[in-house]
Amino acid sequence: MHVNVWHELVESNVGKAGILLIGLVIFLALFAPVLSPYSPRENTDAPAFSRPSEEHWLGTNDARQDIWTQLLYGARTSLSVGFGVALLSAFIGVLVGGTAAIFGGLYDRFWMRVVDATIAIPDMIVIILVAAYLRPNVLLMILLLSALSWPEGARVVRAQTLTLKERMHVSAARTFGAGWSHLLVRHIIPDLGPVLVAIMIQDARRAVFMEAGLSFLGISDPSVMSWGKMMQYARVFTYLEVWKWWLLPTGLALSLTLIGLSFTGYSLESALDPRLREDGHHHHDGGI
Amino acid sequence: MLEISDLKASYDGTEILAGVDLDLLRGDSLAIIGESGAGKTTLGLALMGLLDGRCSGRILLDGKDVLSLDEKERRKMRGKDMAMVFQNVEDALDPLMTVFDQVEEAIVAHREKGDPEDVGDRVRHLFRSVGLDDGKSESFPHQLSGGEKQRALIAMALANDPQVLILDEPTASLDAVTKAEVTCLLRERIREKICLVITHDISTAAKLTGRMAVLYAGRIVEMGETEDLLENPRHPYTRGLIRSSPNMTTTKDLQGIPGRMKHGVSGCPFSDRCTQRIGRCGKEVPQLTEAGDRVIACHRGGIVPLLELSGVRTSFGEFAAVDGVDLTLYEGETIALVGESGSGKTTLAKTVIGLFEQDEGEIRLEGENLCRRDRDFYRRVQMIYQNPKESISHRMNVLEAVAEPLEVQKVGSPAERVAMVKRVLEEVELASDEAFLKKYPHQISGGEAQRVAIARALVLNPKLLIADEPTSALDASVQAKILKLLLNLQEKRGLAILFITHDIAIARKVSDRMAVMLEGKIVEEGLTSDVTTSPVHPYTMRLLEVAPDLAPTRGARERGVAKETREMRDGLWEVSEMPPLRAREI
Question: Which residue of A has its CA nearest to B384?
Answer without folding.
Answer: A172
